[in-house]
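Limitations

Structures in this collection are predictions, not experimental determinations, and the ligand pose is part of the prediction. Treat each record accordingly. The example that follows, with magnesium ion as the small molecule, is included so readers can see exactly what is and is not provided: the inputs are given verbatim, and the output is the predicted complex.
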Amino acid sequence: MVGSVGRLFIGVDLRSDTRQALAALLAEDGVGRLPGRVVPPMNWHLTLRFLGEVEVVECDRLLMELAGAHLGNSFEMVFDGLGAFPRRERATVLWVGINEGESQLQTLAGVVEEAVAAAGFPSEDRPFRAHLTLSRIRPPQDVSTVIAATGVVRLRTRVDEITLFRSHLEHGGTRYEVLESFGL
Ligand code: ATP
Ligand code: MG
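Predicted complex:
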C-alpha cells in the first residue's frame, strides 16, 4: 500500500527485568503447558489502542498528538493472576490481569484515545480491559483447570512510558518494532 507505515498499535512495553521475572514465575508453573498459540515472552506487552494499517500522514499527526498529550505521572502496577476472554469455560484469550494500577491504565487508555481521535482516527467502541495476552486459543477451550493449576503470578512493576509499536506479521511469528516512546 503506497504511503502506509504499516500495522501500528500503542501499548505499554515491559521492562526487561519484568519480562524475565514474569517468565520465570510462569515457567515454574509450566508456561509450556499453556493451551493455544503462546505469545513468546519477548512479545509480551499491554495494548492500549490497536490502530491497524496507518498512512504516513496519519502517523505524523498521531506522533504530534501523542507528543503533546498529558499522559500523567508514572505509576506502579501489579500483575496478579490469570484470566480469560470471553470466559474461562470457553476461552479465546488467556491473559495475566492487572490489580494495582488498573485505574491508571484505564485513564491512560482514555488519554491515548483522545490523542488518537485528535489525530483523525475513528473512535474505538470496544471498552478497554487492561491485560497481558499469554496465549490465543482457536477453537476456544476450557482453561479453568489451567488457571486453577497455575500458582501465584504476582509481580510489581513501574509504568513510565507508552510506546508506539509497528507489528510485522512474519512467517516465523509476529515481531514488534518500537517506533517511538513517550514518557509519563
Ligand atoms: P498475531 O496477530 O500474529 O497473533 P498479534 O496479535 O500480537 O500477533 P497484531 O495482530 O499486530 O499482533 O496485534 C497487536 C496488538 O494489538 C496485540 O496486542 C493484539 O492483541 C492487539 N489487537 C489486534 N487486533 C486488535 C483489534 N481489532 N482490536 C483490539 N486490539 C487488537
Ligand atoms: Mg493479532
